[in-house]
Every structure is written in structure tokens, then in C-alpha cells.
Amino acid sequence: MLGNTDAVANLAVKNLEVAKKFYQDTLGLTEVHVEEGELVVFKSGSSSINVYRSDYAGTNKATAVTWTVDSVEDTVRALKTKGVAFEHYDMPGMTRQGDVHLGGNLKVAWFKDPDGNILNLASR
């Protein structure tokens, strides 16, 4: 029923202005809609990400958004120049080279937004 319908990621944040700066200036997403004080919608490729104000911001302890990139290593380097710090996890079947986790032909790097939402980069 929903297989041909686009889905949108939703990220809760405490401060929309801080989040807007991170998603727009640091990650390079394009703002496409604003509902003052409550919601900013960003375009990321052909996808959308709703960043909304919530008292529950940062409580999700799992990955919230994944970007599939051509080179995880190159994207990590570019984001690090903008001050992004990367997370390191011990995961079965994965090793780590610097900030990039490797498992078979999968490369992944995790980072957090200012509210602690877990985001990642992946390539195969």
C-alpha cells in the first residue's frame, strides 16, 4: 500500500535555531518550509527531513537518519572540518578504521546532532 509513497524522517530538537544552523550550515541541507517556532523542513536529495521542536528531543538511542554516500571517508573528512565529532561503537562483525566502521562491503560512520539524535553515513 505505501511502497510507492515517499517517506519523511522526523527529528525532535529542543532549539530550532541551533538545529537549523547545524542542518543547514554544517550538513548543507536546504530549508524548504518553516512553521515558526515549531518546524523546519529540509530537503536532502529527493528526501525531506522534518526537524521539529519537542521536549523529548534527544531521547532516541538508535540511528534516526542514514545518508548513503559515495565515500564515507571523504564525507567524514569534510564534516570534521565543520566541527562534527564521530561516534565509535563496538559492533559484532565490524572493525574500525579511524571514524569509519567496516563490515564486509559496508562502511558506516555515526555522528550526533546538537540534541543527540544519532545520524549516520553509509556506503556499500
Please characterize this protein's 3D structure:
- With 124 residues, this protein is α+β, with helices and mostly antiparallel strands.
- Helix content is 16%, strand content 42%.
- Strand 9 and strand 10 form a beta hairpin.
- The radius of gyration is 15 Å and the shape is globular.
Count the E strands: 10
CATH superfamily of the largest domain: 2,3-Dihydroxybiphenyl 1,2-Dioxygenase, domain 1
Low-confidence runs of at least 5 consecutive residues: none
CATH architecture of the largest domain: Roll
Q: How many separate helices? A: 2
| Rg measurement, Å | 15 Å
Secondary-structure map:
Blueprint: E1 9-13, H1 16-26, E2 30-35, E3 39-44, E4 47-53, E5 63-68, H2 72-80, E6 86-87, E7 95-97, E8 100-103, E9 106-112, E10 118-123
Short description:
This protein has 124 residues and is of the alpha+beta class.
